[in-house]
Amino acid sequence: MSTVKGLRAGRIALVLIGMTLTAATVGAEERFTTERPSSVLLFPKVVNTSETIIEITNTTNLLVNVHCFYVDGQSFGGFPIWDITDFDLVLTRQQPTHWGVGTGRAVDPTDKETGLDPGLIPPVVPGFTGFLACIEVMPSGEPSGANSLKGEATVGQVTQLGDPANHVSKYNAIGIQACGQGGCGGGGTQVNADNVLELNNVEYAACPGGLLVNFAAENGEDIAIGPANPPSVVSTNLTLIPCGIDFENLNPPSTLLAFDLRNEFESPGSTEGIPVDCWFSRDLGDPLFGNQTTIGGLGSFFGSGILRPIGPSLPVLGVANVLHMAGDGSSDTAATNLHFCNEPAAPSSCVEVNSEIRLPTLP
Amino acid sequence: MLTMKKLTLMGAAGALWGLSALLLSPMAHGATYSDAGAAVIVYPKIVVDTDNGVDTVITVTNQANAQTAAHCFYVNANNRCTNTLQACGDSSDCFDPMSGFTGACVTGWIEINFDIVLTPNQPVAFSAFAGFGNDNLPCPGGIGGTNCGRVCSAGGNKGFPCTQNVDCPGGSCIFATNAGTRVPPVGEDPFIGELKCIEADPITRLPVECHCDTDPTQCPCPADLQGTAIIETVLESGVIDTARYNAIGLRPTTFNNGDRELVIGGPSPDPANPALTCLDQPPETRCEYQPCASVLVFDLLFDGAIDPISNVYVTQSSLTLVPCTEDFLRQRIPQVTAQFLVFNEFEQRLSTSRLVDCLLDSQISLIDTSQFNRSIFYAPLQGTVAGQARITGVGGGLIGSAELGYCDPPAPGTGCANAAYNLNQFADREAADFIRIP
């Protein structure tokens, strides 16, 4: 009898817990994020020209399987290589792991990489410039929507401490959260078993309508370094990837962007027709930005702008890596995650866009 | 009549529902933001130390197409001698030759506040050391001063861009300016502290009242601020080092009563009723901002690990935490206990706790000990390079940022190449946090 009572009480308690936890709250909705565990991680800037260290962590108490794709974003003759290398990770509960993309990580308990090896991680080729996508999956390979993963990438080179050419910068991976039943504003469902990850606020969060870029004018003075070591220069490199990937048909995604910006005097400017094919990495001084982001074109030391797609094309995701150079030539970089723009009203006009990540069909 | 089998199945179903709810509920997300506009932005670490070439460049951007203002607070968290009241690193700095006594070096808390008025979509930046005075304002206004575009002075379109008076029913079309903005230099050099900016009415310096829950024309409540801090070091040797993180933001709910007490998250008035949230509390305790995170997730490379980039130098991470609750009205030093649950790559778990007394800024291997090579954050002790620390605030929420440095072996010290980054977060705090402003 006491067992029946206990079961009944337990059932009621758990149902109450479930009801309480599913109750409407003022908490955040599932979305694209750089600070919450997610089901898909994107590292937009992965290079083997210097070194990149990838860190990925399972934030849950359950074992997690992950399927990752390196995408070589180099172009030859205007055509992206779009070489893909994929591999699997298995992370035990709460397990963090790391590897250098230039060396990869073997499954070898006797090597210098201590800790549980998460799987065989191949090195990328020398000179690799591209991105990394990691997707939480079931052991069978089907997508999983448990929002378990977080990650960071450290990009840089350390030749000798005190060397003016040491560049180390770190950014958070961009996470795409699965909606879950009733999530993403109420219309979410569980992730299904097919190979298409729908970024539509039903299965996974929809792509943000734009990116907000706060930048120092290209080749403008650094207001902290300048007085101590003049003349100083700031230069911002933007790395962007389209919000949507087709790993099944190996179609490199491409999109066209507009960049609407303001300077400190609130003067507007804009550049249209910035092409992003597969992987984009340019300084703001590049002619594609129409000289509007340089110190001469912007007319102030700081600016702010929105990168949004033109017409029906895909929005982009990305990071900025900012080079600070002093008058004597010493320099360092600092990476920053870009803010997402989700304000649909004008003038932001950042309307969320549905897209997809298409995985190779399971054999 | 319920059979044992049925009850067992129902119990299991209930358990599954409870578990799935736990895993899938929107509550399983912290609700501060470092990648979207917000109504309150927090820069946990602002550093100035000119003797060592350190300054912090702060950017603040208004992402709205209307004029707005931020009421900001520098929190000077320098430790201070009990006898001389001078800033100190430890008690050895507190010897007073006049009296011959050595005082104790204790936690300090000095707050100053100021305003930043931003025109529509305007970005501004300033050095924490130099401040932001009239000479630097992009649009100071006034006689002979530069103005930005025009905005409505009052009425329903107050603050929005206009070209003529007819665009501003109930007001007039005037030039937008930064008039009213004055950012003082930080109060001391060296300085370590926090900057917190609250989107506010430029006249009252209080958050703008918003009743989006009952008046849809007020929706959404404003969340227009975003910011970045860039910690820059210029050494005499010519080496420079930069580390950059995004300010952490609190986004609004659908209600704000515009008073001096900002209510951040909070419990439902009746936890048994799933339809109720903290927005159903009485107006004085109703949540005005989304809750702080229950757990901060800090991915790190343990101190003393061989740097995976150079394979020569050692890693040294540092962590900065500030309480989510702050009482600027009564000037009470906020205290929160930070519990650290640390996992290595073997899934092994160690834990420690540390009091966050106004602000905690520490090399991670000095969080739990004064001898870094005995710390649970020390790589040779952990046996792996990478780790995860889950940080839970007891008695209040926490907000933070982190830095990773590559430094000279064998002991962590100066001369590091640093990079800053934002922490991740998990789950909402159930209890409310508060910011009380003067």
Radius of gyration of chain A: 22 Å
Low-confidence stretches of chain A: 1-25
Radius of gyration of chain B: 24 Å
- How far apart the termini of chain B lie comes to 63 Å
> Tally of extended strands of chain B?
31
Structural class of chain B: mainly beta
Shape of chain A: globular
N/C terminus separation of chain A:
51 Å
What features would you describe in this structure?
The complex is a heterodimer of chains A (363) and B (438). Chain A has helices spanning 2-22, 295-298, and strands at residues 32-33, 40-47, 51-58, 64-72, 75-76, 79-80, 83-91, 96-100, 129-137, 149-157, 167-172, 174-176, 196-199, 210-216, 233-242, 245-246, 254-263, 268-277, 280-283, 302-309, 316-325, 331-337, 339-341, 355-358. The longest helix of chain A has 21 residues, at 2-22. The N and C termini of chain A lie far apart (51 Å). A six-stranded antiparallel beta sheet of chain A has the order 1-12-2-9-4-7, with no helix packed on it. In chain A, strands 18-17-20-14-23 form a five-stranded antiparallel beta sheet, with no helix packed on it. In chain A, strands 8-3-10-11 form a four-stranded antiparallel beta sheet, with no helix packed on it. In chain A, strand 5 (75-76) and strand 6 form a beta hairpin. Chain A has two helices and 24 strands. Chain B has 438 residues and is mostly beta strands. Helices cover 6% and strands 40% of the residues of chain B. Chain B has two helices and 31 strands. Chain B has helices spanning 4-24, 379-382; strands at 32-33, 40-48, 54-62, 68-76, 79-81, 87-88, 95-96, 101-102, 105-106, 110-118, 123-127, 150-152, 173-175, 191-200, 210-211, 225-234, 240-246, 248-250, 255-256, 261-264, 293-301, 314-323, 326-327, 335-344, 349-357, 360-363, 386-394, 398-407, 417-422, 424-428, 433-436. In chain B, the strands form nine sheets. In chain B, strands 1-18-2-14-4-10 form a six-stranded antiparallel beta sheet, with no helix packed on it. In chain B, strands 25-24-27-21-30 form a five-stranded antiparallel beta sheet, with no helix packed on it. Residues 1-29 of chain B have low confidence and may be disordered. The interface between A and B is large, with 116 and 123 residues.
